[in-house]
Design goal:
Blueprint (H helix, E strand, L loop, with lengths): L18 H9 L4 H11 L10 H11 L2 H8 L35 H4 L7 E7 L5 E7 L5 E6 L4 H21 L2
Antiparallel strand pairs: 1-2, 2-3
Helix pairs in contact: 2-3
Length: 176
């Protein structure tokens, strides 16, 4: 933004001077990006008539209510009821669901109260440059093991943890 430029305000559908034009263009199946570009070209000298495509989406998905919202959203090319940012989706961030995951609420009572040794919790930390560290914490003693892992795939994590646990077992049994 240049000096003296004010941030563009967010106006609800029906409150902006450009609202009737925006609604008309939406009914003609124009995309909000097209509408914003058209308004910029048509009303070069009139900042009140210029609205960004983000403002149009925001007014439709956040501020609009009831029949007007349903009518205008129905004219968008996608049939979504809510707009989602590309980076906010799970698929956009490489995150997924763990198959056959066991919920922490299903943890046995003895593990929950830390009374019995031998219950471990694990986690995988992702660092910069595709670096990964697996953590194992014994819940009773709170003993922590950090294990450098080659990748975030199951095979890499499991093999690194097996090696580390075997080292721990050898150390413990070597002392006996």
């Amino acid at each position: 933004m240049g000096a003296g430029a004010a941030p563009q305000g967010v106006c609800a559908v029906g409150e902006c001077p450009a609202s009737p034009l925006v609604a008309a263009k939406l009914k003609l199946q124009w995309a909000p990006v097209q509408i914003a570009g058209w308004l910029r070209r048509e009303f070069r000298g009139n900042k009140d008539m210029q609205i960004s495509h983000e403002t149009i989406y925001r007014s439709l998905f956040i501020q609009a209510r009831g029949v007007l919202k349903k009518e205008l959203v129905a004219h968008l090319r996608t049939n979504r009821l809510m707009r989602q940012a590309k980076l906010a989706s799970a698929s956009g961030q490489g995150r997924g669901r763990i198959s056959e995951a066991v919920s922490i609420s299903e943890r046995p009572a003895e593990a929950d109260d830390r009374a019995v040794p031998g219950h471990w919790e694990g986690d995988l930390l992702a660092g910069s440059g595709n670096s990964y560290i697996a953590t194992l914490v014994e819940r009773h003693s709170r003993y922590v093991m950090l294990v450098k892992v080659a990748g975030k795939d199951t095979a890499s994590v499991v093999s690194a943890l097996i090696k580390q646990v075997n080292k721990l077992l050898k150390q413990n049994y070597a002392g006996r």
